[in-house]
Amino acid sequence: MPIDPATQAKVLASLRALTKVAPGRSVEVRVPPYGAVQVIEGGTHRRGTPRAVIETDAVTWLQLADGTLVWADALARGLVHASGERSDLSPYLPLTSQ
Predict the structure, then answer these.
(1) What is the DSSP string of 32-62?
(2) What is the CATH number of the domain that holds 26?
(3) What is the domain count for the chain?
(4) What is the pTM assigned to this prediction?
(5) Cβ(15)–Cβ(35) below 8 Å
């Protein structure tokens, strides 16, 4: 899958915004192939697979970030894969209202 520079810029900007509203290193948020960040206070992840991982595609992530898609709906529809404690981003989304 080729990387779209415009999508990459939006994803990276929104992931940076997430780190501002949910600082920490206990949950890894992945939006392949565009980027990943660690957020939310708690145990720190240093090596290997983190205790909590959230992964989704770029379109879904951008919809969550701008509020056109609600976290619970994305989970229910299987658009987001979230595992581990603290893997709920609903308190931090949408990012536009932060």
Answers:
(1) TTTEEEEESSSSPP-SSS-SEEEEE-HHHHH
(2) 3.30.1050.40
(3) 1
(4) 0.90
(5) yes
